[in-house]
Specification:
heterotrimer; A mainly alpha (350); B alpha/beta (502); C mainly alpha (346); A: 350 residues; ABC transporter involved in vitamin B12 uptake, BtuC; 13 helices; 77% helix; B: alpha/beta; Rossmann fold; 3 domains; 18 helices
């Protein structure tokens, strides 16, 4: 029996087990939440309610996919809420004045604007070397301010919008709301990019070890820009979806949505230090966040539990992740070192 | 000699840092498909050469030729593109990614529609690793792998980028005997493929086992390049060390008092074990050993930076547990770290602020700073240690290495320690300052301090120490009194060579 | 003579000098917008609506100097203000209520501190979480209308005047806090430790600095300052609603960065932050005179924040390519910047 092989089995198993544990953990939390709310909240387990949840999750999930890419590179994008508001308004306003415009075209406009906002973020962080947190706090305000400029205090009201647009949110192919299907498609695309695209894999490398990534020839700056661009573009799509869902869009649309996205991502196991995490995790996180919020609403608890829950979830998730990684690392390192020493001591004296 | 130009040739390469000449007029050639060992004491210039080869620094003089053509290597990435890859003791990996991904980072194998071809990467990585003797799965997470495995990954990475020269810097430091064997087998396979390996190690028995050619450096100069078969260990040592001990600053005779510090059975799993020694007042005890032997680690553990797994520490007869540098300080210990820039000094701060950092509580009653007292302290040490700075307010970042070191020393002397742990105190320091530092250390001993001097410079150890402890692979293997200490004796103990092979 | 020249040059090229220049420039701009700008009453009252922001900025400065960040301060203010309201409503004396509010604020700050200093979590992630958690908490404590009937003696903190109804008490509070925190940062051991930790945490630890203690404490100070800011807030706006200071984070961060405090830690002065608070107040005031809406003003402040950091980065780049650095580099190998916050999301 090769001693070397026996030694090597456990460390792998340990590490992969730890990560699987994480996703299991979210599942568990989700299960507990569902159980809890089905008992304590009225009408929780109805089809109608779950379709509502699906619509909520859809929006957050789309944002979360973009946020995942950014966080993987060791950054963060707090401006997505403002981008959603901006693009939601522009989508609505455009349709209100051009009833004939195809919906897909409008969606593309929204995505395009979001993309532009994301590129600005990317430039500030990758080229300007501004820490992402500061850069996106600034653009959060700037984009929101621009929205206020554009609206000029006016809302777009539901009756101004074409029927086809208003119907969008109501469609439920196969029982699942259309918006959820869109989110599903985005999630699958995101997961595909992170798994099958070379530049998508590069996000992990950049977040795991930026210096090593540079040495390996990965264009770190360009990758970071791409991540922010995607986050912005998806926020644009989110804006379109937002407008479709809520019809009436005003200047405060999308406020605090970035928190939902970040919570989903962090709770979903995407490491705030970058380098690890999956779209699946983020989507599960989005599911958990929206489910809990919905449950709170049904329990007639004030909506402010939502903010409290989001914040606490972030802190708890980060703490758990830090402890898991730390413990795992320590355990693996010590075991490995002990093995080396034991093998050394087994040597014949020089 | 064949007409094919050597793979890499250095011609009269020189490099100095400030006043310190790291390498001077070094010339030798590395041929492909050969294992070329580079030996020399710590500070002989090996790491500087590696930095030059990998483009991290540029030589002041001389040229570098690749395949007979002069090349200018601007940065690490360029070196890699030219086929020069270095592998250090602690390989740089992407912890969060799998083995295969690490091997192909940034150069993913593409399949249909230019998507990442995981199967091909797994297969290819698996094949390369298998050829190299690795037995872990290509999709294992790297986080769980130890140093030996990570080294294999780096080698696999180098192979897959068609590296032509693989530099291995002390690769066996953290490996077991079996793993070293595996590594050697890998190196031989590399040689068969035509890759040149520059093998840097202080373990002379390994050098003899694996190298085809050996280059010896001493004090930054090239001493010899010979076929390994022609070089015995004794001969190697003589070449590495053979200098006349020039007149160092004569050590003042200090009265050696009673034991002030005792370490018993110090152990840190996997790093050092069962290290025991005593320090007496007025005594300077040298701690010698090669890089990776564990000297710094022992000092750090004593000072409370790292945890001890076992062992007792006693100061002045009272037991103490080193929980943090702060608690160690309070008990009269002081530690001058090896990495002066990153651990010893706060670069953007002034001389006086750095000097007073460890004793600030006593200089600031009720928490209020009294800058004039800090200035006075700084001036005192500037005079005592002859620190060359425009004023105590000068920012430490702009001082020379030697003066920076003196500032660090001041900081610790200000705490009036009983035991001073010095880790490479004259590393990267010019000759003039070196003498100053030596004089100070010697003087401190006469004042009753107990000093543990960790150094890689044999003349320094031999000149300053009353006794020399030698650490090898984490164990204390020798305790040599001054009268019996010679360079050869120390190196033999550090390398683990039996004395009979004179 | 050359020495004098050098001293002058040293002064002129300091960030604070640039700020003073900008303050004058902004004043000039404001006078073009309104004749009333240059009256004494107006000048003294210029910063009053923003004092609560200034107070938070002072607290945040200490945190940033130590190499961390705290974006939960506005939320801490909200909780402390809501608690104050509730305690007061319950019948307690207003000063007792204020004391409780301050205690709560400091406590919330210490929670941040423990998570960062003891548990070792990145301050960005922690305060991002507590920003939301504390804001939610504030609403949970009281989601309704805030208490409006505070005794004048109390509200004077935010909206009262002394010396013939001219000097706002809030301004005095701010200046007093600036002196106190300036003293703390520049003249005490604690402050010195903050700079050390922010420049090179490892070296500080090796030198016997009580790193954990200091890091926990500085978040407590930040929390306390948010609490004091809350008192002024209530005094000025007369509201203890849970949405207090919502949206003020931008101005607070801008004030700190614009004040010359290095976002990566280890550098910055209280004087700089005081000046930038004045500047930001002037700009907001001026934009108001120009009839720009609050959200439009935010665009300007946001751009200012970005510009301030870019300027700082550019200056640092210049420094590292300057003569001095070339000498240093020639002497040694890479002079690496200790990264106290490049772990985590930056």
């Amino acid at each position: 029996m090769n001693l070397a092989t026996t030694r090597r089995i456990s460390p792998h198993a340990l590490a992969s087990a730890a990560f699987r544990l994480r996703e299991l953990g979210i599942f568990l939390a989700l299960a507990i939440a569902v159980l809890f709310f089905s008992i304590r909240a009225d009408n929780f387990m109805t089809v109608g309610n779950w379709q509502d949840i699906a619509n909520d999750v859809a929006l957050v999930a789309v944002l979360a996919v973009g946020q995942t890419m950014v966080v993987l590179t060791r950054n963060i994008d707090l401006s997505v809420g403002s981008i959603v508001g901006l693009t939601a308004y522009i989508s609505s306003d455009t349709l209100a004045h051009h009833h004939g415009l195809p919906l897909v075209a409008t969606a593309l406009i929204a995505i395009g604007i979001g993309l532009g906002c994301g590129i600005v973020n990317g430039l500030l962080v990758a080229v300007g070397k501004i820490p992402a947190i500061i850069a996106t706090i600034a653009t959060l305000a700037i984009y929101r301010g621009l929205l206020f400029q554009i609206t000029g205090g006016q809302n777009v009201l539901a009756f101004q919008l074409p029927e086809s647009f208003l119907d969008l949110a109501a469609k439920k192919p196969l029982g699942l709301p259309l918006l959820a299907w869109i989110a599903l498609a985005v999630a699958l695309a995101g997961a595909a990019v992170l798994r099958w695209a070379s530049w998508g894999r590069d996000f992990y490398a950049v977040g795991s070890n930026p210096e090593a990534a540079r040495y390996a020839g990965i264009p770190v700056g360009r990758r970071i820009m791409t991540a922010f661009a995607i986050s912005g573009a998806l926020a644009g799509l989110g804006g379109f979806m937002f407008a479709a869902r809520f019809a009436s869009v005003d200047a405060v649309a999308g406020t605090n949505l970035e928190f939902d996205a970040v919570t989903a991502v962090v709770v979903g196991g995407v490491n705030v230090f970058g380098g690890s995490g999956t779209v699946l995790g983020a989507v599960l996180g989005a599911l958990l966040v929206s489910t809990v919020q919905d449950g709170f609403t049904l329990m007639k608890l004030s909506e402010f539990w939502k903010m409290f829950f989001n914040g606490t979830a972030i802190v708890v998730a980060v703490t758990i992740d830090a402890l898991i990684t730390h413990r795992l690392q320590e355990a693996l390192r010590r075991r490995r070192r002990a093995e080396v020493v034991a093998a050394r001591e087994g040597e014949a004296p020089a | 000699m064949s007409a094919v130009p050597p793979l890499v040739e250095l011609r009269d390469v020189s490099k100095s840092y400030g006043g310190v000449q790291a390498v001077a007029e070094v010339s030798f050639a590395i041929d492909p498909a050969r294992v070329h060992a580079l030996v020399g004491e710590n500070g002989a210039g090996k790491s500087t050469l590696v930095k030059i080869l990998t483009g991290v620094v540029a030589p002041d003089e001389g040229e570098l030729l690749l395949d007979g053509q002069p090349e200018h290597i601007g940065d690490a990435l360029s070196a890699r593109r030219l086929g020069i890859v270095a592998m250090y003791q602690d390989p740089t990996v992407f912890e969060d990614l799998s083995v295969a991904e690490n091997v192909f980072a940034g150069r993913h194998l593409r399949g249909t529609a230019r998507t990442v071809d995981w199967r091909a990467m797994r297969r290819e990585a698996g094949r390369i690793l298998h050829d190299l003797g690795g037995d872990f799965a290509p999709d294992a997470p790297v986080r769980g792998l130890g140093v030996a495995d990570r080294q294999l990954i780096e080698i696999a990475k180098a192979l897959s980028t068609n590296a032509r020269l693989l530099i291995m810097d002390e690769p066996t430091a953290a490996l077991s005997v079996q793993e070293v064997e595996n590594l050697f087998a890998t190196v031989r396979r590399l040689r068969e493929r035509g890759v040149a390996v520059l093998f840097i190690s202080h373990r002379l028995e390994e050098v003899s086992a694996i190298a085809d050619v050996v280059t010896v450096l001493r004090d930054g100069r090239h001493v010899a390049t010979r076929d390994a078969a022609e070089l015995s260990h004794g001969e190697m040592i003589r070449l590495m060390v053979g200098r006349s001990l020039e007149a160092l600053f004569p050590k003042e005779d200090a009265e050696i008092g009673d034991v002030v510090f005792r370490a018993e059975g110090l152990t840190r799993r996997g790093v050092f074990s069962d290290v025991s020694f005593e320090l007496r007042r007025g005594e300077i005890v040298g701690l010698a050993g090669f890089v990776g032997a564990g000297r710094t680690e022992v000092a750090r553990a004593i000072f409370g930076i790292d945890r001890l797994d076992a062992g007792r520490l006693t100061i002045d007869g009272r037991r103490f547990t080193a929980r943090s540098p702060r608690s160690a300080l309070r008990r009269g210990l002081a530690y001058l770290p090896e990495d002066r820039l990153r651990q010893g000094l706060i670069q953007p701060m002034s001389v006086e602020r750095n000097a007073s950092m460890a004793v600030l509580p006593s200089l600031s009653p009720a928490g209020v700073l009294q800058p004039w007292r800090e200035r006075r302290l700084a001036r005192r040490f500037m005079e005592q240690l002859r620190i060359k700075a425009t004023s105590p307010a000068q920012v430490v970042r702009s001082l020379s290495g030697g003066n920076q070191q003196k500032v660090v020393l001041s900081k610790w002397l200000a705490t009036q320690p009983k035991v001073l742990l010095l880790d490479e105190p004259t590393h990267g320091v010019d000759v003039g300052t070196k003498a100053d530092v030596h004089r100070t250390i010697s003087h401190l001993a006469t004042q009753g301090l107990a000093i543990l001097l960790i150094s890689s410079e044999l003349p320094e150890i031999l000149g300053m120490s009353d006794r020399v402890l030698v650490l090898r692979e984490g164990r204390l293997v020798a305790d040599v009194p001054r009268a019996e200490a010679t360079q050869e004796r120390i190196v033999e103990a550090a390398a683990g060579i039996a004395r009979s092979a004179a | 003579m050359k020495a004098v020249g050098r001293v002058l040059a040293g002064l002129v090229f300091r960030w604070e000098a640039v700020l003073v220049l900008l303050i004058f420039a902004a004043a000039f701009w404001s006078t073009t917008l309104s004749d009333l700008f240059l009256t004494r009453a107006n000048l003294l009252d210029l910063t009053t609506p923003y004092i609560f922001i200034g107070l938070m900025a002072l607290g945040l400065t200490l945190v940033v100097v130590a190499g961390e960040i705290d974006i939960s301060i506005a939320s801490i203010l909200a909780v402390s203000v809501v608690v104050l309201g509730q305690v007061f409503e319950a019948g307690a004396n207003v000063w007792v209520a204020a004391a409780v509010g301050l205690l709560v604020a400091t406590g919330l700050g210490l929670v941040n501190g423990l998570l960062v200093g003891v548990v070792g979590l990145p301050s960005l992630a922690v305060t991002l979480g507590t920003l939301a958690a504390y804001r939610g908490l504030a609403f949970l404590i009281n989601s309704g209308e805030g208490v409006a009937s505070f005794p004048v003696g109390f509200t004077n903190i935010g909206s009262g005047y002394v010396w013939g109804q001219q000097v706002p008490i809030a301004l005095l509070v701010f200046l007093g806090a600036a002196v106190a925190l300036g003293f703390l940062l520049h003249a005490t051991r604690f402050g010195r430790y903050l700079y050390a930790i922010g420049s090179n945490r490892e070296a500080a630890r090796f030198s016997g600095v009580p790193v954990t203690l200091v890091r926990v404490a500085v978040f407590g100070v930040s929390g306390l300052m948010a609490g004091i800011a809350g008192l002024v807030y209530v005094g000025f706006f007369g509201s203890t609603r849970a949405d207090a200071a919502d949206g003020s984070l931008l101005d607070v961060v801008t004030a700190v960065v614009l004040g010359g405090v290095d976002i990566f830690g280890g550098a910055g002065t209280i004087l700089g932050v005081v000046l930038s608070v004045v500047l930001v107040s002037e700009l907001r005031n001026g934009m108001q005179l120009d009839n720009l809406g609050g959200d439009t003003q935010n665009i300007v402040i946001g751009v200012l924040l970005l510009a301030a950091i870019l300027a700082g980065n550019a200056l640092r780049a210049l420094q590292t390519s300057g003569l001095r650095a070339r000498i240093a580099r020639a002497r040694h190998k890479e002079v690496m910047r200790p990264s106290s916050r490049t772990e985590g999301i930056t």
